[in-house]
TrEMBL record:
Pathway: Amino-acid biosynthesis; L-serine biosynthesis; L-serine from 3-phospho-D-glycerate: step 3/3. GO terms for biological process: L-serine biosynthetic process. Its EC number is 3.1.3.3. Its cofactor is Mg(2+). It is an enzyme of class 3 (hydrolase). Coiled coil: none annotated. SUPFAM superfamilies: HAD-like. This is Phosphoserine phosphatase. InterPro entries: HAD-like_SerB, HAD-like_sf, HAD_sf, PSP. GO terms for molecular function: L-phosphoserine phosphatase activity; magnesium ion binding. Belongs to the HAD-like hydrolase superfamily. SerB family. Pfam families: HAD (PF12710).
Length: 274
């Protein structure tokens, strides 16, 4: 299959791309350059692109409609926040919990252990705090609505798989019309968080397992599945997909991905394809 170098910027025509020959913008924000299989972008070229905040990807030349499934992390990927950190603000522990979250996402802590540690700190919070986070703090990442609209237009299924909580994934699934959603269940008794989780833990391996399960269920080839995430617990999922996208991600996650989006929003996922 032919390969392409895809360059993306909100105003690509205004960028200095004199080091890249014979460029014709594919759209206002995307340039596609045919390259031979095995092409490696020189470090000097990467530096030129980074200075101008241009995202790039080296990929097989595929149509977006060739995909069958996108699997996405939730926190700091489909949405801009880490929900557990914002819930912790309700007990004045946002800074403490956010530090644990950051270390976990960098791959410095065991995910399940750190998740249970953070959830234990939420004990005693009323369920209304979760609703307040959803209504007043949570926001979609830039380009999310466009990407989801393109998925519907091209019949690409969308699965949200999160190490966060079903309270949020279920509401996002209903609000956005997502095909599938999986996350961890916060135990709530009498309208109050107990500080415990119930059921299966959605950790790094569970994310990868769910991707493979749905790929097989939908009868898709590996290259028809794209996964995107930002943290270390997304790495097995990114590797299990035909195309792994690190979205504004931690260094370990970037190193494991096929594509890194550092400057653009989620519209850049769509822009990687014809």
């Amino acid at each position: 299959m032919p390969h392409v170098l895809v360059l993306q910027h909100p105003d690509i025509a205004s960028c200095d791309l004199s080091d890249f020959p014979k460029l014709v913008p594919y759209s206002e924000r995307v340039v596609r350059i045919d390259v031979p299989a095995g092409f490696v972008l020189p470090e000097a070229a990467k530096a030129i692109l980074a200075r101008q905040q241009i995202d790039y990807a080296l990929l097989p030349d595929q149509s977006f409609a060739d995909l069958g499934l996108i699997v996405s992390d939730m926190d700091s990927t489909l949405i801009t926040i880490e929900c557990v950190d914002e819930i912790a603000a309700g007990v004045g522990l946002k800074a403490e919990v956010a530090e644990i979250t950051e270390r976990s996402m960098r791959g410095e802590l065991d995910f399940e252990q750190s998740l249970r540690q953070r959830v234990a700190l939420l004990k005693g919070l009323p369920e209304e705090v979760l609703q307040n986070v959803y209504d007043n703090v949570l926001s979609l990442s830039p380009g999310a609505e466009y990407l989801l609209a393109e998925c519907k237009r091209h019949d690409v299924k969308f699965m949200l798989v999160s190490g966060g909580f079903t309270f949020f994934t279920e509401r996002l699934q209903q609000q956005l019309g997502l095909d599938y959603a999986f996350a961890n269940v916060l135990e709530i008794e009498g309208g109050v968080l107990t500080g415990r989780l119930t059921g299966r833990i959605i950790d790094a391996q569970a994310k990868a397992d769910l991707l493979l399960q749905h790929r097989h269920m939908l009868g898709l080839q590996p290259q028809q599945v794209l996964a995107m995430g930002d943290g270390a617990n997304d790495i097995p999922m990114l590797r299990a997909a035909g195309i792994g996208v690190a979205y504004r991600a931690k260094p370990k996650t970037q190193a494991a991905a096929d594509v890194c989006i550092q400057f653009g929003g989620l519209e850049a996922v769509r822009g990687c394809f014809r």
